[in-house]
Amino acid sequence: MARSTFAGYAPHPLYMERGEGAHIFDVDGNEYIDYLLALGPLILGHRPPGVTRAVVDVLERSGSMLGTNHPLEPELAERVVRAIPGAELVRFSNSGTEAVMMALRLARAFTGKRLIVRFEGHFHGWSDAIHWSVRPAIPAAGLEHAPRPLPAVPGIPEELAESLIVLPWNRPELLERTIRDRHHEIAAVITEPLMANNGCIEPLPGFLRAIREITAAHGVLLILDEVITGFRLALGGAQEYYGVRADLATFAKALGAGYPISAVAGRRDVMELVARNEVPYLGTYNTNSVVVAAAIAALDELARPGTYERLFALGDRLANGLRDEFRGAGIPALVQGLGPVFQLWFTDTPATTYREAVARAKPTFYATFQQAMLRRGVLFHPSQHEHFFLSTAHDEEDIERTLEAARGAVAEIRDRFV
Ligand SMILES: Cc1ncc(COP(=O)(O)O)c(C=O)c1O
Fold first, then answer.
1. How far is the CA of 228 from the centre of ligand 1 (A)?
2. Which of 157, 185, 222, 389 measures 20 to 30 Å from 343, CA to CA?
3. What residues contact 212, with CB distance under 8 A and at least 6 apart?
4. How many angstroms separate the CA atoms of 378 and 78, rounded?
5. What is the value of pTM for the model shown?
6. What is the mean pLDDT of each run of 10 residues along the chain (418 residues)?
7. What is 49-302's CATH topology?
8. Which residues form ligand 1's pocket by a CB distance below 6 Å?
């Protein structure tokens, strides 16, 4: 789905052959500057030499997996615990979906409570338990202040609705009321710290702190789903960037820089349920040598001084440059998100919730721009609700070439829409 015409790729899906740094090459040999970055993992670009070397080394030295504990595991765990505020213990698996599943289970097991509060428009992986109300059709989704939980796809048992409360994001008063009224039933609130999966809506000032305070005051856990923000907004992810501390946080994507590894990290007393095997963290491929070696190399690279300053500076230049190309052509435009992950919106007022994003979305215009850029050698996701990713492999020249392409693309499409 993420790669098909259903995801918006038109007139046909793309077939790519190889990547190198910030560039990707299709099967016909065409080169593109890549802001899709494999949906986010490639924060160091394609084939970062340090990571590739670590993987080849471990394969030659010890093989792909051992099925026992091995010395690289604590090496990685120490790096994660050092980087992430609030991470006292950590466990690894292979996808963001698994990490979120585990965090939800841990929250329920630790609190002895059943309900999870999630926000409309957020994506937390595709397990039955949480793949709800991601991009619901508004007419079916109930009242704005009290959305009806809707399974994101057929095949999810309807009765799981009973285990969820869905709320609009960025509305602290609604969350506060819900938690005050039902805290004895609510195990956790799960949120993306930056609503990356619906066009990169930022938390309003004080919103994350409000979630933290109201949950802590009522014995409800806060799960930050940092699958996109982790190791991207800062080495310490959104917890460092926004100065908010989760009880549990989930990581994937940038952690492995292209290799399938994920993690749950958080409070010792909660994570000890795993350590004591009361809530076993299962998975044949968990902490296999390849992904652990890759993640160690990735984190060492990301920890170099200046990494995030440079990512933000380049990202801001690109985002503001794109916005200005549209404004210069008389088309309202703004940027939502942050340097390393952002989205362009064709409106004057930023969205703060999923429903506002739907109201402001210009999907056809956006997709037309995406196709015009693709023809000019720039790749990003065709959906208005996705985003641009930036990697450490992008450089000034990539940004300049992208903005030049945008100039041509805006001129080409302006006459068709304005
Ligand atoms: C915030 C968030 N959580 C969870 C997931 C699921 O991760 P994965 O695709 O690795 O299962 C994603 C994937 O995009 C995500 O963006």
1. 7
2. 222
3. 222, 244, 245
4. 38
5. 0.97
6. 78 93 97 98 98 98 97 98 97 98 98 98 98 96 96 97 98 98 98 96 98 98 98 98 98 98 98 97 97 98 98 98 96 96 96 97 95 97 96 98 98 83
7. Aspartate Aminotransferase; domain 2 (3.40.640)
8. 95-97, 100, 123-125, 192, 197, 225, 227-228, 252
